[in-house]
Amino acid sequence: MFAKFGKRTIVLTITSVIAVTLFLWLMPPLRQDQSYHLFADQRTFFGVGNFWDVVSNLPFAIVGLVGLFALRDFASRIIFFGIFATAFGSAYYHLRPDDARLFWDRLPMTIVFMSLFALVIKKRAWVIPFVLAGVSSIVWWRFTGNLWPYALVQFGPMLILIVIAFRSEPQLRPVVVFYGLSKITEFFDAQIYAVFPWSGHTLKHLLAGVATWYIYQWIRTESSQTDSRPASAAGVPAVP
After folding, report:
1. Number of Cα atoms under 13 Å in the Cβ half of residue 184
2. Domains of the chain, residue spans
3. pLDDT tens digit string along 115-128?
4. Cα separation, 10 vs 15, whole angstroms
């Protein structure tokens, strides 16, 4: 059953599981800071509370639909389903921010992180196990209040993506840049809102939406290159 993964992959997986288990056992729980829900821009327009933090999720819906219609392989469709669902999960959360709604914000984002991670490390067959691991981290947080598994799921793959982007995948560099900018604007939510019509968190959504567009561009390029390879390069005997 495990022969196709190779001895090195199996050893690395077992080692990683043991390391993460020890980390979670030894570290004190990481709790959700309740001040996180207090966003700077709480204006209401057209009867919608936190209007700009809600509607700024629209780019996720647009990019998600584009990816779902344009790409047909299973792994890519999982990614863009996650991006599309993020628009609704995040909008739902921002209408009335609290821990219960934050679960539905983070759930689709985790699907995106983990399925993208599988593609970046060239392990498409691992998409479902990775996504299940990500979903488990969110469920763990919801039932135990411990954010450590989610933090590992979000930032661990992102660190690996950064290394790969700057070593061998230049088309992923805009993803890293725009996602990095989104985290910066998220951190300076109130400070940006004090000098700009939109808050830092609203800008976070827009910048992250741009990052997802570059994910689409990268996957589309990868797919076209795979489709254009000669049959012999793909390991299929050429027809004389």
Report:
1. 7
2. 42-223
3. 999 999 998 999 99
4. 9
